[in-house]
């Protein structure tokens, strides 16, 4: 094995952040996910692509615990989390972002990030007012810098551009000590300049934080991911490097709408 994945194998003793074995999810008669087996190494950056209704968001919901799978098992850093509630998965370092914004318009950027850091810290139930040198304040400042929002530090969330709000959502996923993040279409609705910022933010995340990104913008997905998993009608039908996926005729036929390049 060569490239970034080889180093990861050595560094993590072959450990996987995520291991899905035979995961399925039905909604009544509809099979949204069928027999999904997927391994993502610790620190790996993976894109999951597929047309509308392929099952990508359902896949995220089963990993986070929002939906229980109807079959199969899910391991997170070796631990079977299949039956765990959402908060137990968060406690172990799993994070996600949503397609639809869940931000509070009336809070400032720094307060939003601070509260997110506080919410996942062990001091969240403390009755003492946090002081100016409280460690979560410093963490909030670092995260704000990592998502390029320094200049909007005291702006209200409702006054941010759509792109800045998406950057803030990435910040929320970085609160606490994330080990793995699920990004659900973070580039949706962004301008070309905002997309470039997002690519930079994602590629500059600390190396130990792995992620899966669902993204319709191929340019973004293939630039930030080391490996790509293609889904179609609830199943995985291809996995490979961005180059392999981009030049695959079947991928082109199904996902890129024909044109066997
Ligand atoms: N809560 C639900 N109840 C019933 N059916 C659902 C539910 N969530 C998803 N589905 C169905 O499961 C299938 C997969 O949907 P899913 O949202 O996972 O696809 P997707 O690949 O994320 O699509 P998109 O790119 O449009 O977000 C679809 O047929 C969808 O209608």
Automatic annotation (TrEMBL):
- Iron recorded as keyword: no
Task: Give the InterPro entries listed for this entry.
Answer: AAA+_ATPase (IPR003593), ABC_AA/LPS_Transport (IPR051120), ABC_transporter-like_ATP-bd (IPR003439), BCA_ABC_TP_C (IPR032823), P-loop_NTPase (IPR027417)
User: Does the entry feature the keyword Electron transport, yes or no?
Assistant: no
The organism encoding this protein is Labrys wisconsinensis
A Pfam family in this protein? ABC_tran
The record's listing under SUPFAM superfamilies reads: P-loop containing nucleoside triphosphate hydrolases
Key words, A-Z: ATP-binding, Nucleotide-binding, Transport
Tell me a Gene Ontology molecular-function term this record carries.
ATP binding
Q: What is this protein called?
A: Branched-chain amino acid transport system ATP-binding protein
Indicate the segments forming the ABC transporter domain, all copies: 18-258
